[in-house]
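Sample entry (579 residues):
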Amino acid sequence: MLRTTVWHAVEQPDYGLIPSHLSHGPVPLRSDHRRLQLPPVATSIASPALGGGTNEPATKPRRTRDTALKGSLRTVWLIGIVAVGVQFVLLMLHSWYLWDHFDLTADFGQYSQAWQQIATGHLNPYDTTYPWFYPHYGYPFYQGDLELIMWPLAPLYWVWPHAIDLLIVQDVALAGSGLCVFRWSLEHLQTHAPNRRFAVAISSCVLAIVVLQPWTYWAASYDYHSEPLATFFTLLAGRDLWNGRRRGWIWVVFVLLCGNVATSYIAALGIAAIVSGRHRWRIGVVLVFIAVVWLGVVGLVHSGNGAALGAYAYLAHRMTVNDTLGGIFTIVTGVARHPGTAAHVLDSRWGQIYKFVGGVGTVGVFSCVGAAFSVIVLAPSALNSSPGFISDVGGSQNIMAVMACAVGIAMLATWLTRQGQSRGPLLRVGFIAVALALSIGAVAQTAVESAHWTPLSGQTFERVDSATASELASVSAQIPGNAETIVSQGVVGRFAQRHNFYPYLDVFANGQTVPLFGHVVYVVLLPNQGLESAPASGTLAAIALMRRLGARQITDRHGVYAFEWHVPRGQTELTFPPP
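Predicted structure, serialized as tokens:
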């Protein structure tokens, strides 16, 4: 558990820029030679808890802060737009490569199936991707994670009816998240930095970290997921609520549409608001309340299947728990009763946890925003019984913590300068120097981590060569849009825009059984390419089975084995041999 120490705010001069109405010459004097009583100036909003609120009385209404950037900070903002724009183009090119080479797995298929069904009038789409209740496959899509965001995204199908639209949306969200982090940091620094040069230096460090950190590229490489969209909306909500804008509550609604996992982001934002300063604690309480209520709604409509809370049941020394708010309560109380179990798992996976924090320079975690999101996002990923959620392929699951730590760099820097405010000149300069050194060190660490991790994102997911991709495109063109398909999970993503598709996983001890609905089934198997869970030996055995069943072989070129099989009358399932 992370303990956050809260320092009591003291009344101090503002570290922000001088308000424009106070910067035009000397203050006039009264006839008795006493200065006019000036309106009160807000004190620094750098939080006592590393990055939070003001020293205003709790009863004073919060005003919307003017966040228009001025002078050199506006120039830095324009440079940031160009830098993130270049990053967005690179993300788009990478997504096109993955799409063109069929490097899209079952996770992408799950979303593209629902997206296509909604767009074509099936407003309650059915997910047939994963055997959550094996041998039974699937459930209504909304019961997975209550990712209602797929309904607003569905009209994109009528702009361009290809599921690559989802990858483009994800790229927009990832690049937009970086831009939002940068803007939030600039606005914070403009108000709280001791001077403009300091603000420019720290914001430049934040920009470099946002563009260099590797986890944006990992998130873009692994299919489509709703977490990057939720991250973007959460950052927009946080920036607006921190600046006193009611518009932030609209972004909160969009976060909730991204599913029950995204709901935890609202809780984390609420916790950060509570500890950031006394004028935000009410907002924080409301955010936490909204998150708890929404998780209750998820349970009431039985939409927690995708969360798979059973993966945390071991923390309560149980075999399973309900996918409801009650299940979450059981897990939390289980951790409280048996903290040693959770501590052991976290300790054994510490390296996996730290790579996300280290990839963005580490120091941002020592802010209220960075700390809250690091705990709420990374701890559940690490405690899942499946190590995949905290592994490098879990970039999309954990990108919110990464972005929050990037915002925290600016907050930590201004908090440090505030500590030297009431001290002597030497100490004031010392605190500023420490803030600059930590920020520059964060850039250096991010660059080193990126040099290692960013190239691996391509190597991990780019598994299909051009000749095989061309053959897959030829096979895909021969399969009718309404036909049932069974495709190796490493390339199934582009075959998934149909009502009945099943990934060939071959992870069951007694073989994989797939239900049959149509009279003709198309089977596409790749033993040696794609990000496959099935061993090559198992896939070769499945190929031999299709030949024994008398299926017509469409192709066996470039590592692609495709079959058209006419299902015998009365047969309702097909069982592939075990691995």
